[in-house]
Amino acid sequence: MGIFRWITAGESHGQGVLAVLEGVPKGLALDVAAVDAALSRRQRGYGRGQRMQLECDAVSVLSGMKRGLTLGSPLTLLIKNRDERIDQYRTLTRPRPGHADLAGALKYDTHDCAEVMERASARETAARVAAGAVAAQVLRCVDIDVLAMVDSIGAVHFEVPDGPMAALRESVLASQFGAADPMQAAAAQSAVDAARESRDTLGGTFLVRATGCPAGLGSPMQWHERLDGRLAQALVSIPGIKGVEFGLGFGAAATGGRSCHDPIFWGPEAGFVRGSNHAGGIEGGMSNGSDIVLRAAMKPIPTLPDGLPSVDLVNGNPAPGVYERSDVCSVPAASVVGEAMVALTLLETLTECVESTTMALLETSTKGMRARHLGFMRNAKLSAGD
Fold first, then answer.
1. Which residues on adjacent β-strands are paired with residue 8?
2. Dist CA 204 CA 151 (whole Å)
3. What is the CATH number of domain 5-384?
């Protein structure tokens, strides 16, 4: 069983950012153009800054493929930086409130916040998006689909419609905010423009939905194996994310148990189904067979044109936090990273449950897992002698 694992490397102004993926099943016909499309989607979005106009992200596959197919060996992905000037980058001694600057300077014993920024920068998430695009291709081969969509920019809220994932994806890709609701685009654009005019920034929220996940991904046996905990960590690890909720989320605290939990029904054709999905598809640290639905909240970007009060690390004098070129709003980009992180986490947990050294084994064993769940009641009756 080849359990999927991954890491990233690289700095914001180094030669590039990389992702190394272990346990990608042998025999995946990797669509490199689809990886590039995911990278392009991450760079889009109303409110992005100047660096997105400079970079033109594309992936190079350095290892793990032969003649268009994955080998089962580590897959290495490289996204080169055009803005490659790490050795010439200026020394930054005025930490920005809300960023990693001061905590990192103290941790790594440096007075140059740029040394911390190089890795803490959201530039690293380009590698995550590339890795997530690979994971998404593997998951789609076993009928698991993941999609993120923005549902708020500042105080502007987008509707999140129901419907097939293909139609939702079409709407999201057509939106400059990565939202499935076009009706609020003008209001969101006005909000971003107003923030730019006032030299401020905006946050927001995005939703991630995963369909087709079989029941039983994750485990209640150890705290770190719980699927909701792993997904929450995956999303909170994205720069700027300050909160994650599943299903009803914080709204569940204001409801009674009768209206909060999802009734269970069974039929010989459909198997187990739910009358609602307030749990967001996860119970007891495991997927329950319903769609996995979670939402993440992103704070406003902490890099402000008029820096907030700070201190110069060289002399201790009061000084505004340094300004580096930045976005006004990057919630649409964060949603793409969130989609990638959910896909990566689901592939990790799936490969812990089924055989996955080759794509054929992964497809066969996942199909068998679903068949076992569908036949659960019939097998119980047979065991009881009925």
1. 19
2. 8
3. 3.60.150.10
Instruction: Tokens for 182, please give them.
Output: 């076009």
Burial of 327 (0-12, 13-18, 19+ CB in 10 A): buried
Instruction: Provide the residue ranges of all domains of the chain, joining segments of one domain with +.
Output: 5-384
DSSP 254-296: GS-HHHHS--EEEETTTEEEES--TTTTEETTEE-SSPEEEEE
List the structure tokens of 262: 């999802």
Q: Is the pTM of the predicted complex or chain greater than 0.90?
A: yes
Q: At what angle do helices 376-384 and 359-374 cross, to 10 degrees?
A: 60
Cα–Cα dist 55/336, whole Å = 17
Dist. CA 201–CA 192, nearest whole Å:
8
Convert the pLDDT of each residue in 58-67 to its tens digit: 999 999 999 9
Is the Cα dihedral 287, 367, 170, 131 positive or negative?
positive
Consecutive H or E run containing 340 = helix 331-351
- Both tokens assigned to 310: 């700070």
| 8-state DSSP, 206 | E
For the stretch 334-358, pLDDT in tens is 999 999 999 999 999 999 999 999 9
Distance CA 372, CA 377 (A): 10
Q: Strand 145-153 vs strand 65-66: parallel, antiparallel, or unpaired?
A: unpaired
Which one, of 251, 344, 342, lies nearest residue 7 by Cα? 344
Contacts of residue 33, Cβ cutoff 8 Å, sequence gap at least 6: none
Contact by Cβ (8 Å): 179, 151: yes
Q: How far is CA 229 from CA 73, 224, 236, 283, 338, in A?
A: 29, 7, 10, 11, 15
Q: How far is 236 from 258, CA to CA, in rounded Å? A: 30
Query: Residue 76's beta-bridge partner residues?
Result: 20, 63
- 8 Å CB contact between 124 and 57: no
* pLDDT of residue 266 exceeding 80: yes
Check: CB of residue 157 under 8 Å from CB of residue 364.
no
Cα(247)–Cα(71) distance, integer angstroms: 38
Other beta carbons within 10 angstroms of residue 212's beta carbon come to 18
* Cα–Cα distance for residue pair 68/63, rounded to 1 Å: 11
